[in-house]
Amino acid sequence: MSAKWSLALAAVALCGCTQAASTSAKEPTVITKSDKSQPLKPVKGVAVTFKGKVVFQGLEGGFFGIIDDTGRKWLPLSLPKEMRRPGLVVEVDGTPDPDVMTIQQWGTPLRINSIKVLDDKDAVAPGVRY
After folding, report:
1. Rounded distance, CA 102 to CA 89, Å?
2. How do residues 13-32 score in pLDDT, each as one tens digit?
3. 84-105 b/e with 16+ CB inside 10 Å = b?
4. For 91-125, how does the pLDDT look when each residue is reduced to its tens digit (9 = 90+)?
5. pTM: predicted TM-score of the whole model, two decimal places
6. What is 13-41 written as a DSSP string?
7. Cβ neighbours of residue 20 under 8 Å, at least 6 residues apart?
8. What are the CB-based long-range contacts (under 8 Å, 24+) for 124-128?
9. 3-state DSSP call for residue 91?
């Protein structure tokens, strides 16, 4: 009788551990931040769109970041060279990746999908070293 119970428990455990794989591709969820009262909560894999200002931080050898209109700090993992100008106001569409480890330890790591300049009047001129 012990063998029957063991076989039954193994069958139940095996059935409970299997999952049906989804074959349909999901459309990415996009969150657009228009309300400036609360900062975006980064969710891995969920795209965000926001306005912010490019900043240069002199920590750990220096790096560029983006501070959005709510004050949240974003660490772009792939900021295009032409956008590396402190003071540049940009609109960013990207995907947060909070699980990425960086030496900067500043802001939420962000994989940029698209970025465009909204205002460059207060930006440092291209090619100027910091």
Report:
1. 24
2. 555 554 444 444 445 444 45
3. bbbebbbebbbbbeeeeeeebe
4. 999 999 988 888 888 999 999 999 999 999 998 88
5. 0.66
6. HHHHH--PPP-SPPPPPEEE---TTS---
7. none
8. 124/85, 124/86, 124/87, 125/85, 126/82, 126/85
9. strand
